[in-house]
Design goal:
By secondary structure, this protein is an alpha+beta fold. 36% of the residues lie in helices and 22% in strands.
Length: 468
């Protein structure tokens, strides 16, 4: 009798509100996945700052490893997270304080303190990042504790260090800091010096698939830890199911990252003025994208309806939108829509200002979906102008791939086929990075070709097609 456990890989995908452990197995060239652990990621307050509860995250990750090890022989582990946030280690390798949350007031305070010392257009040209208060550069430049620090580590790199005791950065997560040179793919040392950041503080950068070290915990097996694409969006885009080099994508959840891959960063002033960013992607490719409002509007609208006594699932909201009449369109990027509470009231007022005086709930929901699609269409038209490329298809990846009515709206508004899925794109990209490190995969391009056969993919055809 063979009692040997099946071999598997373990991906930890951490978002700004929750984390998951996902088992992956490459069998006969195909990737199969199963969620094995899920946990909340709730910030806490420490010394007056909103911080990430790092000890709890490490405990939950180790619990996920323990669960997975009971059923599988784990060949590797990798972690991806959100961008910009970091921790500082002292000269003994101890954390100086909990990592501060990007929504902490110190982000805006640091930005305002420094905004007269730089030119946004020049900073964009130097880093490729859209200049935002949450970017690591501004907080780090104003952080007094960096003078006592020996090492900066971004969140996935910090978690990897706490598991292995080994320090190694990763390029896609580093590309969210406004400290990376998008041409060389390494730290922009002159810029760091300009903002008072020591060269020795910034870690050496590896890439997805690199070996980090072995898990150091007496209660757990000595499992190899590898680099994933550290940034969750980079993981998601690695899982776009296509054989084409040129495509458009929307990584769609609460927020929407709409963009494309380019061979080189797009650094011209027009890209900065239009709100685009350049971030690290698979080797030799750049992610050129814009951060847009996503299904946050629908989530908050659902919450507003519940407060009035109307309980509707997301599917019921889509069906109501589908059966309602077209009315007006609104600008989904307006600042008041980024704030929680009273979403039904805010959307209704915006529609009334456009001439729809008494919109029904169904018309409000339909307006949101069509307006989101319009924002994506405008972004893709801008990408066409900036890159000079033509694109035949749009890929919607992540949880928003389930929003079938929105996917159809995108196809109709953009006049292009929309391919929706995979839903678990981020976890897939994490596992693919491990697969490359272990030799199961030759490249992300080969992995993407495999994904084109996924049965979950759905295609939404527009009534008329336009190539741009």
């Amino acid at each position: 009798m063979n009692n040997r456990k099946p071999q598997a890989l373990l991906a930890f995908d951490l978002g700004a509100s929750s984390g998951r452990g996902i088992i992956g197995r490459f069998q006969t060239g195909q990737l199969t996945m199963a969620e094995i652990h899920r946990f909340d990621n709730r910030p806490i307050t420490e010394n007056g700052h909103l911080c990430w509860d790092l000890p709890t995250l490490v405990t939950q990750i180790k619990l996920g490893i323990k669960k997975a090890s009971e059923s599988y022989e784990l060949l590797s582990i990798a972690i991806d997270t959100w961008g910009v946030d970091y921790g500082l280690l002292d000269h003994q390798g101890q954390l100086l304080r909990l990592p501060v949350h990007y929504r902490d007031s110190s982000s805006q305070q640091s930005y305002e303190k420094l905004q007269d010392t730089f030119d946004a257009e020049k900073l964009f040209a130097a880093t490729g990042n859209q200049v935002m208060a949450i970017n690591s550069l501004f907080r780090l430049a104003c952080e007094e504790s960096k003078e006592q620090a020996a090492q900066l580590l971004l969140m996935p790199d910090l978690l990897g260090y706490l598991l292995t005791g080994k320090v190694l950065g990763e390029k896609t997560i580093a590309s969210t800091t406004q400290l990376l040179d998008p041409i060389t793919g390494d730290w922009h040392q002159a810029l760091a010096a300009q903002f008072g950041i020591r060269e020795s503080l910034l870690p050496n950068l590896g890439q997805a698939g690199d070996f980090v070290g072995v898990l150091q915990d007496p209660e757990l097996p000595e499992i190899p830890v590898y680099k994933s694409y550290g940034h969750d969006t980079a993981c998601a885009v690695a899982s776009v199911p296509t054989a084409k080099e040129d495509f458009l994508f929307i990584s769609l959840g609460t927020w929407a990252l709409a963009g494309t891959e380019t061979a080189a960063p797009v650094l011209e002033p027009a890209a900065q003025q239009l709100g685009f960013s350049n971030e690290g992607g698979r080797p030799g490719r750049n992610r050129f994208l814009k951060n847009l409002t996503g299904l946050w509007l629908i989530q908050e609208l659902q919450r507003s309806l519940e407060q009035t006594g109307t309980h509707m699932s997301f599917q019921e909201m889509m069906e109501l939108a589908r059966s309602s009449a077209d009315t007006v369109l609104i600008d989904t990027q307006q600042p008041q829509l980024a704030q929680p509470e009273h979403m039904l009231e805010k959307l209704t007022k915006l529609m009334q200002a456009k001439g729809c005086l008494q919109p029904t709930v169904g018309e409000v929901i339909r307006c949101v979906y069509r307006s989101l699609a319009t924002a994506f269409a405008q972004t893709f038209a801008e990408i066409h102008r900036l890159t000079g490329k033509t694109y035949e298809e749009i890929h919607v990846i992540g949880g928003g791939a389930r929003a079938d009515f929105l996917c159809q709206c995108i196809a109709e508004t953009c006049h292009k086929p929309v391919i929706a899925g995979p839903v678990e794109a981020t976890a897939m990209g994490n596992l693919a990075a491990q697969g490359i490190g272990l030799g199961y995969l030759t490249s992300i391009h080969a992995f993407r070709r495999q994904l084109t056969a996924l049965p979950e993919l759905k295609c939404y055809q527009p009534t008329r097609v336009q190539v741009y």
